[in-house]
């Protein structure tokens, strides 16, 4: 308790940890902090827009709601157990996955994490910036020029970068404050549009994105429901690594993660569906349509939602991006990595606003990245089940210290069966995508239905099990003690060698 109190009352300073193992003395977070992060960060326009997206596919109110809710429940049940990676390994999910993919093979997760976070950061800043500028245009006659939008995007990105640089504890505090504020905004929003909501809205069959109901409903279930939790596959360990497995059970952590995902994603998606039905304008985006249809008294809450909601979401994804890029480029500090990915995300926002069609870009983005992330997550979960989620913490850090060897060295740092299985699963997933811009041959065989979430995961796991049936899983005793240095130059691919590194001591800062 003394250390926890000190952490809460000390002078705020930027977090000093990158992807090194968090010492037990600093692991003072609690499962309820996960709920605060996942609820506070998600009650913003990013996930509200996903509710609107289901309606934009031509679905009626109840069809859009069920697609969002069913998809979110499925996705949360799949993703929540990945919270154990950070809890048991003391590092983020990307580095922790080195136990199954190899200390270099875990770069797959780092790249997926950067792509997922960069895309969602762009969507968050885009939606938040739209809300800020459009609201101010009605409140104070601010001209809706490209310059005004650029300034709004830059303001949000700068504030989110500051929160991400200061790190985990600031993110927890920010989202604890954001949760009640955003809840109040959503309640006010329902009051503002309640009389305009047609609860019997049947949808428009002539506007179905994939031509008929069930393929379109399944597209919505994957792209606006399942994709929400899947976007967190590499993020959960960023927070659970600060929770002590000596004081909190894995069951409590998984339960808190699942609860936070469901509450944090379903509530804004339902709000997005209801308000989209009330204000839908096919010629305008969701945010612009909402602002133009809103009563004057609700403009300030929209402005607050654009600012506070975007800060919560963009703060956690920027923090994650900084960690993942730090893991990809060990010589780059976490702070430098965070600033770099923030600048990249802003570039994507400008392209999304001024060059690309935002709705089609978002759909394509979530389908493709779901196809890449799902087999990685499925293989990681399979590895966790086979090893009872036990990790050798020092051996996971070999690559970060630019060394060789350890229990997870496999073949030159890569577990080839896991890597090949991920490639197979991803390829099957991409060929199973179905959207207005692309329908893969596997989706064609399924009458145009997007089955990428299911086929990519199953293909990855089946391939992994076939390639590793004769290989005994590596289950080193979980320990924070360092491995002994070794002088061997090239560890065996079949036997887990000791780390040829200084695994003891503080991690990279």
Question: What's the layout of helices and strands?
Answer:
Layout: H1 2-9, H2 31-42, H3 45-56, H4 61-79, H5 83-89, H6 93-96, H7 98-101, H8 107-140, H9 146-166, H10 168-193, H11 213-230, H12 236-240, H13 250-279, H14 286-293, H15 299-328, H16 334-354, H17 358-387, H18 393-396, E1 404-405, H19 416-431, H20 441-445, H21 452-468, E2 499-500
Helix pairs in contact: 2-10, 2-13, 2-15, 3-4, 3-11, 3-13, 4-11, 4-13, 5-13, 8-9, 8-14, 8-15, 8-16, 8-17, 9-15, 9-16, 10-13, 10-15, 11-13, 11-17, 15-16, 17-19, 17-21, 19-21
Membrane topology: Multi-pass membrane protein
Biased composition (Low complexity): 476-493
Main location: membrane
Account of the 3D structure:
With 509 residues, the protein is mostly helical. It has a single domain, classed as Orthogonal Bundle (Hydantoin permease). 65% of the residues lie in helices and 1% in strands. It contains 21 helices and 2 strands. A two-stranded antiparallel ribbon has the order 1-2. The chain is globular and about 65 Å long. The two termini are 25 Å apart. The N terminus and C terminus are likely disordered.
């Amino acid at each position: 308790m003394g250390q926890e109190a000190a952490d809460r009352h000390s002078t705020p300073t930027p977090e000093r940890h990158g992807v090194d193992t968090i010492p037990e003395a600093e692991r003072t977070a609690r499962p309820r902090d996960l709920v605060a992060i996942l609820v506070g960060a998600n009650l913003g326009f990013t996930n509200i827009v996903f509710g609107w997206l289901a309606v934009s596919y031509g679905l009626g109110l109840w069809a859009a709601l069920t697609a969002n809710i069913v998809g979110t429940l499925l996705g949360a049940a799949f993703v929540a157990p990945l919270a154990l990676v950070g809890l048991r390994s003391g590092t983020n999910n990307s580095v922790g996955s080195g136990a199954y993919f190899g200390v270099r093979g875990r770069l797959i997760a780092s790249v997926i994490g950067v792509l997922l976070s960069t895309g969602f950061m762009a969507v968050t800043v885009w939606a938040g910036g739209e809300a800020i500028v459009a609201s101010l245009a009605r409140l104070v006659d601010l001209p809706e020029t490209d310059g005004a939008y650029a300034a709004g995007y830059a303001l949000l990105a700068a504030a989110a970068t500051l929160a991400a640089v200061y790190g985990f504890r600031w993110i927890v505090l920010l989202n604890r404050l954001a949760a009640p504020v955003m809840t109040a905004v959503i309640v006010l929003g329902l009051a503002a549009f309640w009389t305009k909501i047609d609860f019997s809205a049947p949808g428009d069959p002539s506007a179905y994105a994939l031509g008929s109901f069930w393929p379109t409903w399944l597209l919505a279930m994957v792209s606006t429901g399942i994709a929400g939790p899947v976007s967190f596959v590499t993020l959960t360990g960023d927070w659970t690594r600060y929770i002590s497995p000596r004081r909190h059970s894995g069951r409590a952590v998984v339960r808190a993660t699942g609860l936070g995902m469901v509450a944090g994603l379903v509530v804004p998606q339902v709000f997005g569906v209801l308000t989209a039905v009330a204000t839908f304008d096919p010629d305008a985006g969701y945010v612009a349509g909402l602002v133009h249809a809103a009563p004057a008294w609700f403009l300030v809450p929209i402005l607050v939602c654009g600012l506070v909601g975007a800060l919560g979401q963009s703060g956690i994804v920027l923090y994650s991006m900084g960690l993942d890029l730090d893991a990809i480029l060990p010589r780059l500090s976490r702070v430098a990595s965070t600033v770099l990915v923030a600048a990249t995300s802003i570039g994507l926002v400008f392209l999304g606003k001024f060059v690309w069609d935002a709705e089609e870009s978002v759909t394509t983005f979530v389908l493709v990245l779901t196809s890449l992330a799902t087999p990685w997550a499925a293989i990681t979960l399979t590895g966790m089940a086979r090893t009872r989620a036990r990790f050798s913490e020092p051996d996971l850090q070999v690559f970060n210290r630019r060394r060789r060897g350890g229990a997870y060295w496999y073949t030159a740092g890569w577990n080839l069966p896991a890597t090949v299985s991920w490639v197979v699963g991803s390829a099957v997933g991409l060929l199973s995508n179905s959207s207005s811009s692309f329908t893969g041959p596997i989706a064609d065989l399924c009458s145009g239905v997007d089955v990428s979430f299911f086929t990519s995961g199953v293909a990855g796991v089946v391939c992994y099990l076939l390639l590793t049936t004769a290989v005994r899983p590596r289950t080193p005793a979980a320990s924070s003690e360092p491995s002994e240095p070794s002088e061997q130059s090239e560890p065996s691919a079949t036997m887990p060698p000791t780390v040829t590194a200084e695994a003891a001591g503080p991690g990279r800062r």
